[in-house]
Amino acid sequence: MSAAMSAPAPAPPEVRNYAIVTLAYWADTLADGATRTLVLFYFYQLGYNALQVASLFLFYEIFGVLTNLCGGWLASRFGLKSTLFMGLGTQLAALAMLALMPPGGLTVVWVMASQALSGIAKDLTKMSSKSAVKLVAGDNEGRLYRWVALLTGSKNALKGVGFFLGGLLLSWIGFQPAVWTLMALVAVALLVAAVMMRGGLGTVNKEAKFRQLFSNNRAVNVLAVARLFLFGARDVWFVVALPVFLSSVLGWKFWQAGGFMALWVIGYGVVQASAPALLRRKSAEGTAHPDGRTATGLAFLLALLPAAIAGALWLEVTPVLAVVAGLILFGIIFALNSAVHSYLILAYTDHRKVAMNVGIYYMANACGRLAGTILSGLLYQAGLHSGTTGGLIWCLLASTGFVLVAALLSLGLPGRAQGRTGFSAGL
C-alpha cells in the first residue's frame, strides 16, 4: 500500500483513550490469570481430581462464548468505552464472590458462577481493546500489524505474570487475601479509566442488529473456525493436564508449577510481540505482512510438536526434558501462528463491522478454549489408566489432531495475491 493511500496518523485524543483501554485490559488480564491459577491449585490441594478441577472453568468458557457472541453487538450499539467499563465492573463482582464467601462456603457451584462472571469480564475487556486497535491504526497495514502484535504479545506476557502471581500469592498469603489483592488492582484500573478517558472510543451505531453479528465474509468465517481448533489444541493439554502433571507426577510445588507456566506464557507473549520482525518476508509488492499461506505453514509445523512430545513420553524419555523442551518449541510456533491470526482478523474486516467481526472471531476462540478445557480434564483422567504419563499423552495426541484440522482449514484463507479486495469481499 502506498504512503498516499495510508490512513493518517491517529489523533492524540484517540491514542490517549486507546492507551487507557490497553492499560485497563492489562490490569484485567493480570487479575484474570492470577485468579485462574488460584482456583486451580486451591481446589487441587483440597483433593479435587483433574476432571473436577476442569469443571470449575466450564462456565468461564461457556460464558466467554456467549459474551463474544453478544459483545460485538453491544459495542456497536453502546460504544467500546461502555463495554470496557462493563468488563471491569463484572470482574470486580466475580472477585467479590470469592473474597466475601467464607472458605467453607466455596462450593463448586459458587466458584463456577464466579468464573462465569470472570469469563464475561475478560472477553468484554479483550474485545474492547482489540477492536480499538483497528479504529486507531486505521487501514495502514504496517501500523496495524505492529500494534496488534504488540498488544497481543504484551497481554499474554502479563497473563503469564498473573499465573506466577496467583501461585505465589496462594503460597504466601493464602486464597482469600490473594483475591482481595486482585480486587484492589482491578478497582484502581476502573477508577483510572473512568477519570482519565475523554469522550468515547469509536462510533456508536444504535441501528446495529443482532443478526449482523454473523459475517458473510468468507475469510472471516474460515479464520474463526481455524482459530477454534488452534486454541483447542493449546488448552487441551495446557489448561488442566499440564499443571496437574507438573504437580502430581513431577512433584513440583504450586509456586514452581505456576512460575514455569508463567515463564512460558511470558515468553509466548514476547514472541507474539516480535512476530512482525520474526516473520518479515518481502513480497513482490514490497510489503511484509502475513497472509493465509503464513498461517497454514505455521499450523502444519505446529502439529509436529505435540506429536513429538507424546512420542517422547511414550518412549520414556525423561518427562521433565520432554515436556519442558517440547513446550518451549510449541510456544514459539503457537505464538507466531496466533499473532498472524490476530492480524488477519483485523485485515479482513473494515471499520463499520470491526467490533462485530472481532466478537465472532473471539467467540470461536472461546469455543476452542471450552472444548480444550473439558477435554483436558476428561482425557487426562481417562489416560491415567495407561500409566502416570498416559493422561498427558492422550491430551497431546488430541492437540495434534486439533492443530491438523486448523492447518487444513487455513488452506482456505486468502493469500496476498488476492489483494485487499479479496479480504473485503462480502462485507
Show the helix and strand layout.
Blueprint: H1 12-45, H2 50-56, H3 58-78, H4 80-100, H5 108-137, H6 141-172, H7 175-196, H8 218-238, H9 241-248, H10 254-273, H11 275-278, H12 292-314, H13 319-347, H14 354-383, H15 390-410, H16 419-424
Helix pairs in contact: 1-2, 1-4, 1-5, 1-6, 1-7, 2-14, 3-4, 3-5, 3-14, 4-5, 4-7, 5-6, 5-14, 6-10, 6-13, 8-13, 8-14, 8-15, 10-13, 12-13, 12-15, 14-15
Describe this structure in words.
Mean pLDDT is 77; it is low at 1-11, 282-286 and 417-427. This protein has 16 helices and no strands. With 427 residues, it is an all-alpha fold. Helix 5 runs antiparallel to helix 6. It is globular, with a radius of gyration of 21 Å.
What is this entry, summarized?
With 427 residues, this protein is mostly helical.
Strand content: under 5%
Total number of distinct structural domains: 1
- CATH architecture classification: Up-down Bundle
Distance between the termini: 20 Å
Report the CATH topology name.
Growth Hormone, Chain: A
CATH homologous superfamily - what is it?
Answer: MFS general substrate transporter like domains
What is the number of helical segments per DSSP (H or I, 4+ residues)? 16
Shape: globular
Mean pLDDT, to the nearest integer, reads 77
How many strands, what sense, and barrel or not for the largest sheet? none
- Strand and helix order: HHHHHHHHHHHHHHHH
Cα gyration radius (Å): 21 Å
List low-pLDDT spans: 1-11, 282-286, 417-427
Q: What structural category arises from helix and sheet content?
A: mainly alpha
Q: What is the CATH C level class, in words?
A: Mainly Alpha
In total, the number of strands is 0
Helical proportion? Answer: over 70%
